[in-house]
Amino acid sequence: MPRFDRLLRGPLVGLLVLVVASCSAAGSSTPSAGAATNPTGGGSATLGATAAPTATPTPEPVRLALDWTPNTDHTGFYVAQAKGWYAAAGVELQVLPYNNTAPETLMGAGQADCGISFQDALTFAVAAGIPITSVMAILQHTASAIGVLASSDITRPRQLDGKVYAGFGYPNEVPTLKFVIQADGGKGDFKVVTADSTAYEALYSKQADFTIPFTAWEGVEATERGIALRYFRFQDYGFPDFYQVVLACSNPWLAAHPDLAKRFVSATVQGFEYAVTNPADAAAILIAQNPGVFDANPKLPVDSANFLASGGYYVDANGNVGTQTLQEWTGYSKFLFDQHLLTDAAGKVVTTEPDYASLFSDSYLP
User: Fold this and answer.
1) Residues 178 and 146 sit within 8 Å (Cβ to Cβ)
2) The pLDDT of residue 21
3) 100 and 83 in contact (C-beta within 8 Å)?
4) Within a domain: 172
């Protein structure tokens, strides 16, 4: 099951920055298991408009670090692989299975070229000195939300005051929840129980009053189980929307392989475009490319794929896949800075506001 990391994984990256330094110094090999920024969003990708190169370049490897076991956040990669779009672009995709090391850490150590990241995780990583850039937004909007049982008497965020929150132990959970509750007129005072992977079950069994499900996975799964939830979306209460999932790449790798990076990102965009227009088939490809992973619930990736496609999570306001804007990157990343949650490589709170334009680039999009 995909982790809560989709919302708030970033703080752990700062704790792992020392691992990056030691791995880089040792010249670590690939584990078994700054590029130019274009804040104006140039090079938009129109659905169905991506074309394969007319001549197939010599295959070059791209090591991609996953953030968890394969799931619908990764669909476009497996589609592009199965459809031969990477091969046509001269890309030899090497998927590195998740091994409890954050993708940002692997990229910083030179053990992965690119990886699945999140707006908050990437912001934390860059603040901690890890040289990576987001080259594509996979999910244009956050699909996480505050969730309560629909059968409860909690009908708005301010009623969460005094209630029990089943959390995951990340330091930016409480500030986010306080913001939403206070925006609805509450005090933002609630009890926190760190439940980690059992947080959802704690809510379902009424041991907790609220948690933060990823609606495109845990939320879909709850519906399949007949568990009705009521959601309070962060952005409905003035909280900045953000890129929940992004494709990030190592800056040194981008500088050394700009053409390969563009071919890789272009084929990946094509894969996610297919997931938008053909979600059921894309889910079938995801399942087929990962035998055994979804045996426990083969319906979940299909329902999740339809949820993401129908909800417009993969596309921007113009229907494009992958694009990013400075406004979106500034909103949530500035919130993290304002909350004094960004730390440098030494673990000290960052006091100089980040250059938000340096966190992403659209120049590799088709």
Assistant:
1) no
2) 35
3) no
4) yes
pLDDT in tens, 104-119: 999 999 999 999 999 9
Is 27 inside a domain boundary?
Answer: no
Where among 198, 222, 237 does a domain terminate?
A: 237
Integer Cα distance of 75 and 285 in angstroms? 8
End of a domain among 237, 254, 269? 237
The CA R_g of the chain, rounded to the nearest whole Å, is 20
Instruction: Return the DSSP state at 322.
Output: B
Burial readout 91-122 (b: 16 or more C-beta within 10 A, e: otherwise): bebebbebeebbbbbbbbbbbbbbbbbbbbbb
Tokens coding 363 = 């120049």
- Residue 97 and residue 17 share a domain: yes
Residue 31 placed within a domain? no
Residue 348 domain-assigned? yes
Q: Quick check: 22 pLDDT over 90?
A: no
Q: What beta strand segments (E) does the chain contain? A: 60-65, 91-96, 114-117, 132-139, 146-149, 164-167, 191-194, 229-232, 245-250
> How many of the other CB atoms lie within 10 Å of CB of 49?
12
The predicted pLDDT at position 56 comes to 76
Q: Whole domain around residue 232: which residue ranges?
A: 146-237
Residue 100: which region, alpha, beta or left (left: phi > 0; alpha: psi -120 to 50)? left
Claim to verify: residue 86 and residue 202 sit in the same structural domain: no
- In this predicted model, what pLDDT tens digit does every residue of 215-253 receive, in sequence order? 999 999 999 999 999 999 999 999 999 999 999 999 999
CA 117 from centre of chain: 5
pLDDT of residue 55: 67
81-97 residue pLDDT tens: 999 999 999 999 999 98
| Residues 233, 248 within the same domain | no
State the pTM of this model: 0.86
Alpha carbons 81 and 85: distance in angstroms, whole number: 6
